[in-house]
Structure formats: structure tokens, C-alpha cells
Amino acid sequence: MDAFGLRHFTARDPDAIAVIEQNGAVWSRGELLALADRTARAFAAAGLKPGNVLAIVAPNCAEYLVAYFAGIAAGLYVVPINWHLSPPEIDYVLENSGATAIVAHARLGGRRLTPLRARAPRVRALVAIGSAAGFCELRDFAHAPAPALAAGPEGRMLPYTSATTGRPKAVRRALSGARHALRKFIEWHLALGVALEHDNVHLCSSMLYHAAPLDGVRVALEMGHRVLLTETWEPLAVLELIERRRVTTTFMTPTMFVRLLKLPSEARTRHATATLRFVVHGGAPCPHDVKRRMLAWWGPIIWEAYGSTEAQGTIANSEEWLRRPGTVGRPIAGSRLAILDEQGRELPAGEPGLIYLAPYTGERFEYHGDDAKTRACWRGDLVCVGDIGYVDDDGYLFVCGRASELIISSGMNIYPAEIEQALIEHPAVADCAVFGAPHELLGEVPHAIVQTASDSEPSAALTRELMRFLGERVAAMKLPRRIEYRTTLPRDPNGKLLRRALRTELAP
After folding, report:
1. Rounded-to-integer distance, Cα 330 and Cα 46, Å
2. Contact 398/410 with Cβ under 8 angstroms?
3. What is the pLDDT tens value at each position of the chain, 508 positions in all?
4. Extended strands (E) in 308-365
5. Is 200 helix (H, G, I), strand (E, B) or coil?
6. Of 212, 280, 287, 465, which cross-links 303 as Cys (Cβ 3.0–4.6 Å)?
7. CATH 3.30.300.30: does it fit domain 406-506?
8. How many CB atoms lie within 10 A of CB 406?
């Protein structure tokens, strides 16, 4: 592999654009890296040592990346925290991770900043992006006199799982493997046809506090690409940016595809998307009709990936998916896949079981502070995060859903994702969720919640139409016993359904 890395490309052309923010602010490679290095030295001068923890609580902005790269340079574990969480939820992550430095955005306001400020006696650096009482402004912090950094390991992300079913847990890997893992990630992108530099522009319209988008942005910068950051996700705005900024790569979720396709035809075709070379989607199952329509619109540049915070897994290109609709592909280079039953026995093709993967970097991880959970998820070099799926005769993986979401009705397994994928294809459905509801005789039955499209209204007639529509696509036992309507469903800004919030809300 050719030389790579933000430092490498900055040395070659420090004035090249590295980041463009949604408000139009432009950061060169030299500007971004210089501020990150000064911030890293300031962390060290404040007493932080390799292996300490830096937490970032901020919306998408270039300073977020400054703080992240500073943590990497200083050998720190960097915890991206969802700033939409409540103060107690944020405090839990800070306490659990043992954060000794915090970078927060002044725009969070007093409700979220005050609890962070209260942690001042326990942290060595309390830094704000912007001006906030009790915090040192980032540029002031970075410009204070500080000695050069001593040689040491690179830092890396300490991501927390999204906690849709319980308390979040941190996935911790050794600092010693950080550079190797980055090289493997870049080699993987090169193998998929994503070139170094080559006028590439990466659009990040997802939130940086999620591991996949943050990893994607870092890899883009380390490959010499320009990064375009947005703070919100609006379908028309995204299409306009793709055309105006000549975007070549991006990561999306199926929810984003659905919102794009629900735009009027005239709005969809108003902006050119021909510059796109590599679009990868993941995070949730993609309805078949949605995928076909996106391929017809954008062409065979859409890849589907499956994995988790714990382990990257499989990938499928457009041609593979069209030959096997619904597949999430085969293991990426260096990985391995197995479908096992509860006793650890490998299951034959076509039979659903627990999905186990070998991390393609060859690294192991632990759940920070939870040895029992760590032991429970590993079988040799294979790890399972609770997803259920099967492989076909050629080793292509099909994901059914999460074991924790499985509906068992009269002894039969029902996967909510299958019903949701069918429901979302109806033009009157803007969003939907399916989960198990208690039933006296059957144990559980499917229960659906639907958010109607803007031109539709909940009604008994619509319920009958949706049941008819579903009846043509799923077996009778999978039909919801009840369809309930809501004006909105709880999703995070990346489109992930917050099932725990729904269950809590609807619990008797």
C-alpha cells in the first residue's frame, strides 16, 4: 500500500481542503492538523497520559475532529458521547469510562453543560468548543505553552454500544493495535475500489458520536479525501450537497434511503448524483423494494455492510445483492463467519442461528469493566452480539434480526424486521416498528406501530389496507394483531429505532 495518513498528505499539500462544514467554513489539512497537535500537547501538559480517556460531547463540527485527532495523537481513548442523551445518561458514560478530559460544545447549553462542569474536580481538562462558563475555550487551551509530545502509542476510539436494549457498554481494544487496525481498514477500502486522494469527497451526514460515521470520516482524512460535514439530515439538502460539492463517497442507513425515495419525483431528479462512486449502507435491514429503487436511481455503486461496534463483518456489492436479494454479503478479507446454535454447534446452510464473526483485524476486545459479558460473547476467535441469521449454500449471509427482538408465537419464531420491511414499502407508511405483545394463548403476537406519510391519515380503512398489503407479503402468523398509529417514532439522528423507548412508553 502507498504511504497514507493525514500527516503524510498534509506534508505533501498543507493548503489542500480537509473539511468543509455545513455553514461553508473551510479547514485546510494544515490548519486542522496543527490545531489537533497543539491540543494534544495541551492534554499532555494538563497531566493526561496514554491510556487515559477523553470524552467528546458535541454536534458535528470541524472542532470535533480536532479533538478526536488530538486524542489519537496523545495516546488517549476517545469516547464519542451522544449529546442528545439526558444529563444522567451522559454522566453514566463519563463515570463508567473514567473520563479524565471532556470536550463539549458551548451550544449544548446549561442543562447539559452544568453537570459536565460539576465534574471539574475529577477531570484534568474541561474544554469547550466556543465560549462556556467554567470551560477553557478550545483555541485558548491549545495555544497555552506546552512541551512536545513524548513518543508513545496512538490513541483510539472507545465506542459505547447504542444501548437500545439496556445500559451502554464500552468496547475496549488495546492501544498497541491502533495503527495496525487503521492500516487494515484502509487496505479494505482500497480493495473495494476507493482510491487515495483522487479528488474524493466524503459526505458525513450521520452523527459523529456513532462509531461507523466517525470511523468513516477518519479513514477519509487518512486517505487524503476531503470531508463534508453536516449537522442535520434533510433529504433535499443532502441531494443538493452531493451535486454542489461533487460528493464521491458516503455512508447511509436504510431510513435515509426511504426518506430520499419518498421525495416527489421532480425533487429527486432535480440534483445530479453522478459523482457518487461508493455508497455504503448498514445499521438496519434494507427493504428489498427500497434497495432496488435506489440501485435504479444511483446505479451499481451501492454496497451493503453488516457488522457491529464489536466487529466488522460482511459486505455485498450491488451485483451480488441483485443476484441474492436481502443478502448482506460474505465475510470481508481477514474475517470469518459461522452460524451456531445455543450450544455452539455450527448449523447447516439455510438454518437460522446466532451470527458469529472473527474480527478482520485479528484483534480481541473486552467490554470495559464487564468480564462476564466479555466471556459470554466470545467462542474462540469468534464473537456474537446477539444477531440471528443464516447463510446460503455459497456462504452469503442473511440477517433475520436480533435475538432480543425475536417474537415467539405459539412456538414459532417471528422476526420483526421482516414485517417492518414489508410495511415500509406501502406508500402510506412513513415509518414503522414491530415488536412482540403478550398474548394469553400464543405467548406473544406481533404489534405494529405506524407513522403515516404526510398525505395519509390513520383510519380503519387504512388499517384494513395495510393488513391486506401485508397479507400478500408475509405469512398469516406474522400479521400484526393490532396496528397503532403515532405521529412520530423514536429514532436517533442516524435513523436507528429506539425500541427500548417504545417498550417503556407502551408498557402496561
Report:
1. 46
2. no
3. 558 899 999 999 999 999 999 999 999 999 999 999 999 999 999 999 999 999 999 999 999 999 999 999 999 999 999 998 888 889 999 999 999 999 999 999 888 899 999 998 889 999 999 999 999 999 999 998 888 888 889 999 999 986 545 678 999 999 999 999 999 999 999 999 999 998 999 999 999 999 989 999 999 999 999 999 999 889 999 999 999 999 999 999 888 998 899 899 999 989 999 999 999 998 878 889 899 999 999 999 999 999 888 988 899 999 999 999 999 999 998 899 999 998 999 999 999 999 999 998 989 999 999 999 999 999 999 999 889 999 999 999 999 888 878 888 877 788 888 899 899 989 999 999 998 888 877 778 899 999 999 889 999 999 999 999 999 998 888 999 999 999 988 887 666 777 777 776 665 5
4. 312-316, 330-331, 336-340, 353-358
5. coil
6. 280
7. yes
8. 17
Cα 93-254-78 angle, rounded to 5 deg? 25
* 3-state class (DSSP) for residue 354: strand
Cell of 189: 477500502
State the Cα–Cα distance between residues 78 and 81, nearest whole angstrom.
Answer: 10
What angle, rounded to 10 degrees, do the helices at 211-222 and 178-191 form?
A: 80
Q: Which residues contact 269 (CB under 8 A, 6 or more apart)?
A: none
Cα(178)–Cα(74) distance, integer angstroms: 13
Question: What are the backbone dihedrals phi and psi of residue 342, each rounded to the nearest 5 degrees, phi first?
Answer: -60, -25
- How far apart CA 256 and CA 253 sit, in angstroms, is 5
Select from 1.10.10.10, 2.40.240.20, 3.40.50.980, 1.10.10.1800 the CATH code of 29-175.
3.40.50.980
Closest C-alpha to 136, from 43, 21, 64, 33: 43
Q: How far apart are CA 317 and CA 304, in angstroms?
A: 7
Helix (H, G, I), strand (E, B), or coil: what is residue 278? strand
**pTM higher than 0.90, yes or no?**
no
Calpha distance 32→41 (Å, rounded): 15
Q: Where are the domains of the chain?
A: 29-175, 320-404, 406-506
